[in-house]
Amino acid sequence: MPTPTRIWVIDDDRSVRFVLAEALREAGHLVQGFEGARQALAALAEEAPPDLVFTDVRMPEMDGIALLEVLKARRPGLPVIVMSAYTDVASTASAFRGGAHEFLSKPFDLDEAVALAARALPAGRGGGPGAADAPAPETPADTPLAADALVGETPAMRELFRAIGRVAQTPLNVLITGETGTGKELVARALHRESPRAHKPFVALNTAAIPAELLESELFGHEAGAFTGAQKRHTGRFEQADGGTLFLDEIGDMPAGLQTRLLRVLAEGEFFRVGGRELIRVDVRVIAATHQDLEAKVRDGSFRADLLHRLDVVRLRLPPLRERKADIPALAARFLAQAAARLGSPAKRLNAEALKRLQQHDWPGNVRELENLCWRLAALAPGESIGPRDLAGSLRPAAAASADWTRHLAQAVRDALARGETGLYPAYRETFDQVLLEAALEHTNGHRQRAAGVLGVGRNTVTRKLGRGTG
Ligand SMILES: Nc1ncnc2c1ncn2[C@@H]1O[C@H](COP(=O)(O)OP(=O)(O)OP(=O)(O)O)[C@@H](O)[C@H]1O
């Protein structure tokens, strides 16, 4: 019979200690509980090390991250699972930086914790005495909670924060996907801030914002006289980001020729400036972002598959705000507080009714739309308590609130034309009408007269179009 594995559970909260220990015992492990890091360290001095450790982060006297550091210095092979009720990027990153095996958000599911323990225990249980000779991991100085920390409490965001904390410690290229305004740039900054490259530059370039003909020299720089108007040598973003992180926003808009060039640079780590002869070597971590469906762009030939593979080593998806509406109150409070601090006025608060109204909105512009709204309210709402009346006119329907759909439409048309399609107008017209109609009917629970009313068309138009739509 195999000897049972020994697991330590360290938490100042007795009930957590108790239920977790019980669940692990039921799964056949030998479990020892400690109410603090010091007690655990004292035990480590006297008895054989355990096979696995669960530790809380916030504990009096010595916190779990400091404990993790000591444990890892003494027993580098010992898997440590860090548990915390505070799942923000700074917490997850400091745990993974310290060598945590996994980050478990509290409250957690006991089955999940037991399954995690099973996965964490190495075959043959590892962590033996030999492992203690390996060098201790480097632990950079603690970063304070940044002012631009990501706000999010919903499961999807916590999952994302764990992924950021883990991926930040690696040199891998990352592709961030998500609709406009969901926080892709903020995620890229967090990845940089929590990485070993944090003391080197973070350089951002929005591919869509720069005319195609200037993009190459923006990225790779140029020599004096490389082209008309190039009077001085110019270092490109790749060189500026040397040792650090280069954030390429809207990567889907990169012209074909540059995609090829970028691919080569990513593969070889070296390039020539435009008009240059000197081979430039750089060490840059690339984080790319897009709101587009790059797989579709690969299929229609407008994005290189091999470039996608290079960039997409790790993919982080940012959910749209409408999929995480529970985060709205915390985000709004943060933006209102930031605006008040900037405007030098007392912070305003949204009352319950107003919050409810915000939860009903669809947020086509995502977090950016909410942020803009909060700034407007901070400046213009008359009282310190913001009610639904103050929101009137601010929560415009998708079409008016954001130009995003027109961008998508333009892209769809460009793609269709590139595929050689013709007769686009009637087909798109038809789709446009159907989308409006279906959304309005959904809003009015299928009531045609009211749908016609909110759309501003006659009832007959609705009936006629419905007839066409349903055959
Ligand atoms: N989770 C979050 N917590 C706090 N602020 C956020 C969060 N997500 C986004 N923001 C804020 O919302 C705004 C938009 O975010 P950001 O620019 O990162 O979005 P994006 O996805 O890169 O947008 P685009 O695709 O249009 O470039 C920024 O001001 C950012 O600080």
From TrEMBL:
GO molecular function list: ATP binding; phosphorelay response regulator activity; sequence-specific DNA binding
PROSITE patterns associated with the record: RESPONSE_REGULATORY, SIGMA54_INTERACT_1, SIGMA54_INTERACT_2, SIGMA54_INTERACT_3, SIGMA54_INTERACT_4
4-aspartylphosphate modifications at: 56
Domain of life: Bacteria
GO cellular component: cytoplasm
Record's keyword annotation contains Phosphoprotein: yes
Compartment(s) of residence: Cytoplasm
Domain Sigma-54 factor interaction: 150-379
Alphabetical list of InterPro entries matching this protein: AAA+_ATPase (IPR003593), AAA_lid_NorR (IPR058031), CheY-like_superfamily (IPR011006), Homeodomain-like_sf (IPR009057), HTH_Fis (IPR002197), P-loop_NTPase (IPR027417), Sig_transdc_resp-reg_receiver (IPR001789), Sigma_54_int (IPR002078)
Annotated keywords: Activator, ATP-binding, Cytoplasm, DNA-binding, Nitrogen fixation, Nucleotide-binding, Phosphoprotein, Repressor, Transcription, Transcription regulation, Two-component regulatory system
Biological process per Gene Ontology, one example term: regulation of nitrogen utilization
Database matches in CDD domains: AAA
Stretches assigned to the Response regulatory domain: 6-121
Protein task: Member of the two-component regulatory system NtrB/NtrC, which controls expression of the nitrogen-regulated (ntr) genes in response to nitrogen limitation. Phosphorylated NtrC binds directly to DNA and stimulates the formation of open promoter-sigma54-RNA polymerase complexes.
Protein name per Swiss-Prot or TrEMBL: DNA-binding transcriptional regulator NtrC
Species the sequence originates in: Arenimonas fontis
